[in-house]
């Protein structure tokens, strides 16, 4: 039984040289009444199986929009993607027909949202919502799907899973709801999991537990994890590499160790210096002075120049390319050398 | 749940008492003597008048009259008309007719209103959407009297003359359920328009909800996302509206029944007010209030079925 959708689906198994997921020069813009909002302006990153990529950046930098573009859940219109590729196992998802994308979504690339209360459907039981993955995508019977749901709820360590499978989302605590969201997203063993600020809505102790759970699930299944977050404290523990976003661009990407020791972009440097102390953990980071740019009216040259302590004259006119610092590092700053030198290891 | 229903029914008692008292007082205050009205132009024997007045407690003070009436109602006795007919009997037959009419209207409202609303929502911003919204505006702004007579003339009379087939009989209710179609539609008119708009807004809102995005991210088909995930949520406010509207439709029947000469309680109410038939007026209004209260109770119970976040104890 083959349909047109499966013919174009990316193969499973060996990857060759192709990364599991590669976002390449992605542009996303929104047509709004106020004008064209250029939310994502040439983002590139890659992800390998078993790897965790943390995406950092302040509010409005385009982290979620990039993730939604990968999932194919942007509303088009108002959104449109004028340029770029999102290659999943070498196949450009943006060129796939809709029915093929539906086969990938949820089954091979899954997503966890920030606010599990609003992201779960209030009128269906959690068992129904988790089980739906098996009923719809695997053709299972109601009873088998429910059994699977209980298994998954056990796996994400929801106490008394069997008794709670018929409960509704509002009957759970915030942390438990996020666990249900996680259970639903890993139901069909996706190869890529995108977690968009999965812990922001939770309190600190629960945050740590959820992160631990995610890390553990990832180890067990070798999936690639894209972790979008504000919390730099969390990133150091779980991420392999970091992509820092500013105004819809990647301004620096690097292995986690390198970026913590020697940031190569003034913005990442500012972020790191504003890491909250342990006693202030969980607070948002706004230590960099100045305001995020207006996407309707972007600064010329380097978008960061109005806020940059390293700024030189040409920063106002020349857009910095993503300079290669090493085979695994890039920085979109004309003066990355100065920034690197300015940090002591 | 059972206790909740009982509590709601008990709460309904003061509402019922208050509204009947109000109506009773209004009718009491109407000028003119019902007994005198009975005889028309003829002269009446003062002795007979006195006996009749006594029989109908018309000489008692207001509250005594009210008490007499309302205690009867709780025993299921709605009194007699001044011509001697049992009010409950009189109402029973007419009530059936009006219920049929209102139910026809409600079903039409639900099907057409929800249908058009969903259609508009799924085509929002396009020509279909604009056309539907424009026609609801027309339906809302043209008075029932106009739509009533125009449709009666066009679909009831002219269509029959042209085709020779009586699609929408308009001779009272003597042609079975089909005679309810046209008056039912006229009665439902503005409600259909409002429900269409409400449905459209509700679905458009719901389609923006986070859980709809989640359903898409789960790889559900567009059909399933809309038909299962969004629709279940979008329907919740519509049920409330429909339930509350049953009362409005029963009240609105006064005009529609007059246009189409349907012998329901609307027409009866109109005549009774005119003839100062106190017991009939109060009886009909009491029944309408009861329908309203029950419809609202059913709506609240349905609400709990549709939305698990709502629980009644
Ligand atoms: N539907 C939309 N219409 C117009 N603009 C939008 C839309 N969705 C997102 N944007 C804009 O795109 C920009 C990037 O948004 P995005 O949600 O990706 O930010 P983010 O980095 O995830 O921020 P946060 O940390 O607050 O989640 C924002 O400025 C936002 O205003
Ligand atoms: S390019 Fe210039 S303005 Fe931009 S970050 Fe580098 S130094 Fe600062
Ligand atoms: Mg976001």
Description:
Chain A: Residues 21-272 form the ABC transporter domain. Chain A: This is Oligopeptide/dipeptide ABC transporter ATP-binding protein. Chain A: It is found in: Cell membrane. Chain A: It is a peripheral membrane protein. Chain A: Its main location: membrane. Chain A has 345 residues and is of the alpha/beta class. Chain A has 2 domains: 18-239, Rossmann fold (3-Layer(aba) Sandwich), CATH 3.40.50; 263-344, no CATH class. Chain A contains 13 helices and 12 strands. In chain A, the strands form 2 sheets. An 8-stranded mixed sheet of chain A has the order 6-7-8-3-9-10-12-11, sandwiched between helices. In chain A, a hairpin with a 2-residue loop joins strand 1 and strand 2 (35-47). In chain A, helix 8 packs parallel to helix 9. The longest helix of chain A is centred in the middle third of the chain and has 18 residues, at 204-221. Chain A is globular and about 65 Å long. The termini of chain A are far apart. The model of chain A has no long low-confidence stretch (mean pLDDT 84). Chain B has 313 residues and is mainly alpha-helical. The radius of gyration of chain B is 24 Å and the shape is flat. The model of chain B has no long low-confidence stretch (mean pLDDT 81). Chain B has helices at 2-29, 34-39, 46-55, 62-74, 87-122, 127-141, 144-163, 181-207, 210-217, 222-259, 265-274, 278-306. Chain B folds into 2 domains: 2-74, no CATH class; 88-306, MetI-like fold (Orthogonal Bundle), CATH 1.10.3720.10. The A-B interface holds A 71, 73, 102-107, 110-111, 113, 115, 118-125, 132-133, 136-137, 168, 170, 184 and B 209-211, 213-221, 224, 229, 232-233, 236, 306-309. The complex binds adenosine-5'-triphosphate (ATP), iron/sulfur cluster (SF4) and magnesium ion. Residues 30, 32, 37, 39, 57, 59-65, 78, 295 of chain A line the site of adenosine-5'-triphosphate.
